[in-house]
Amino acid sequence: xxxxxxxxxxxxxxxxxxxxxxxxxxxxxxxxxxxxxxxxxxxxxxxxxxxxxxxxxxxxxxxxxxxxxxxxxxxxxxxxxxxxxxxxxxx
Length: 91
Fold this sequence. Notes:
Radius of gyration: 12 Å
Largest sheet: 4 strands, mixed
C-alpha cells in the first residue's frame, strides 16, 4: 500500500468512526515492540489503524506473525535507513 492509499484508508477510517494512531517503539529490542503493539491494540477498536515505528529489524517478521496469530490485518510494511514501519488494522 502506497502513501496515498494509506492516507485514503485513514480518511475512510475517520469517517466510519475508527481512529489512526502511531506507536513509537524505537530503540526497543525484541520482544518489547511486539508487547507494546499488543498492549496498544488492546486499547483500540476493530477497524482502527495502528502505525508502529521501530528500529529493531526483527519487527518485520515478528509483528506480522503476531498479527496473523491474533487475526489483525497488516496493511503495509516498509524499511528505510534503519527505521521499520508496520501499519496494521485492528480486527
